[in-house]
Amino acid sequence: MIFDLDGTLFQTETLLLPAYHATFDQLRAENLYSGETPPESAILGSLGMLLEHIWQRVMPESDEAVRRRADVLLLDYQIQGLVKGEGKLYDGVADTLTALHEQGIRLFVASNGLESYVKEVVAYKGVDELFEALYSAGEFQTRSKVDLVRMLLEKYGIGSAWMVGDRSSDVEAGLKNGLTVIGCDYAEFKSGSGELEGAHAKIQRFGELLELIER
Question: What is the pTM of this model?
């Protein structure tokens, strides 16, 4: 099974939003940004995209240097939050992943996030030992999740897998790589009813994965 991270395993807003506001406070302090912080919906509605595309949507008027500074600040504040114990996995994630692992199912993460963010979230939430590998767009410099998942499949010799995620990018990555796609329909910041169109099955809570396997 290959899992997306944000909105699938990790309740992203519990870590992201405090860091998001701190980032814009610091950008203003450095005279790199003026005006009000863009609404939270701007970044929550962009999750699942590559970070550069997220900033293009959140602050389209800012230049590239400011966006790169925002990258650094947001990551720093999120790591600081993890160290302080902020951020939550969705209900049932740790137990379900443990049960899947005990069944001998190989577990992976494929995320469009930055390498250190993905690895730190999984480590600080205590589930890192359950995964065979963590793949991120930040580490492998991929331009789409389709490419990222393809790289993972080829590297680990995987011929059959489930792609589990909450975004259209996850559905696309699964379908274009010939995988079974499970859509996670429980994130509070999901962007719309058509986001998971094409998924073979949808779940309303993470633990339903165990029921799907039994069926």
Answer: 0.91
